[in-house]
Amino acid sequence: MSLKSEASHPLPKAGILDISPYVPGKSAARGAKIYKLSSNESPFGASPQAVAAYSSKSNLLALYPDGSAAELREAIAARYGLNAGSIVCGAGSDELLQLLAHAYLAPGDEAVYSQFGFLVYPIAIASNGAKAVVAPEVNHTTSVDEMLKCVTPRTKMVFLANPNNPTGTYLPFDEVKRLHAGLPKTTLLVLDAAYAEYVRRNDYESGLELVATSDNVVMTRTFSKIYGLAGLRLGWAYCPAHVADVLNRIRGPFNVSAAAMAAGVAAINDQKFVEAAIAHNEKWLVLLTEQLQSLGLKVTPSVGNFLLIHFAASGKKTAGMADAFLNEHGIILRRMEAYGLPNCLRMTIGDEEANRAVVSALTDFLK
Predict the structure, then answer these.
(1) By the 8 A CB rule, do 218 and 188 touch?
(2) Which candidate among 157, 171, 206, 300 keeps its CA 20 to 30 Å from the CA of 199?
(3) C-alpha 233: how far from its chain's center?
């Protein structure tokens, strides 16, 4: 019997080539000055203390980092009053989401996420051979009822971005607890709280309490947004002890660099810098929403550091035309076709100059 295959090259396992690759926001446009507001990056950049800590590791590049990320986990634990042993660090929260899917999903399993949820979820689900089940949203907000309708005996994981990207909407803590109460004890609820630091609502909770009191809840966080360390790829997960044990068994032995860990420790300890970034975001979130609405545009109410802006579905004032016009003026927002929102653009809250530039350009566009 011939062992020769009909294929001309090695093939990935079934389902991999059906995955749509994640496409980040654009970085280039015309214009002498570029305003990049497509990736929800902080207009404040990183804390000077974090930059200095990062630089301090430049003469130690030949040495492996601490594989346990002990100092970083201790700093996070001290900040939030947690047990450092229940924290797992990764190369961005993206890696941790992928590790969770890798550990708990297999062919034949199902995982649920909301209609306009983060695009990493379906990639993580499909790459592990599981079936992605999409729960419809109501007014661009996750619906607990719709999520629970999707749960079956095959549901091994539920992803909830809270606040959600790209809509900016959120679920109050009572609703998150209702979702959790409706899940089987064998289903893992993953709370993606990448934008938690920006939320200023009394009924919001990032998930720390639910993780501490449950055996089937994990919360992921990132240093990419409020801390301005997107280029370093740094995130963390707060888990029940048994989940932390699983993640530590399958993650890379040195999955976080020494420089990233040093910057993370300095960043989380510089709360004065963080509070300034929060205050700026809170001010401009309100102002931009009001100014864009005054132009006749619909804006989904957001608690994050970005706004989902709705345009006409047809005619001469569509999202695609607005995007092209903005690009001509050096302004880059995020197209939303990949999220199933072709009539929308997502705008990161930038610095004052960038924010005013967007409003001015859209004013001209809509004339």
Answers:
(1) yes
(2) 157
(3) 12
